[in-house]
């Protein structure tokens, strides 16, 4: 799981995937969280992060989802 408060394209997560590819490491389970390549409405920082799933709750949910998939568990929303 990579998390960044910047664009996904060309960001930290992309660098992790590139490095894994160069080292021939399977990165199929790497999940990147960050700003999408689209216009993001203006607003309060906390509200925007929550809308994008980049607040603590969103990151936790993404980690739980990824861990559940890795363990072969069905997706459950809380």
- Structural shape: flat
Domains counted in the coordinates: how many? 1
CATH class category label: Alpha Beta
Provide a count of the helices. Answer: 3
Task: Kindly report the CATH topology.
Answer: Rossmann fold
Residue runs with pLDDT of under 50 for 5 or more positions: none
Fraction of residues in H or I helices: 40-55%
Average residue pLDDT: 90
Number of strands: 2
List the helices and strands and how they pair.
Elements: E1 2-7, H1 12-22, E2 32-35, H2 45-51, H3 56-70
Parallel strand pairs: 1-2
Task: Describe what is shown at a glance.
The chain has three helices and two strands.
Please characterize this protein's 3D structure:
There is one protein chain. This protein is of the alpha+beta class. It has a single domain (2-70), classed as 3-Layer(aba) Sandwich (Rossmann fold), CATH 3.40.50.920. Helix content is 42%, strand content 13%. The chain has helices at 12-22, 45-51, 56-70; strands at residues 2-7, 32-35. The chain has a two-stranded parallel ribbon. α1 links the parallel β1 and β2 (32-35).
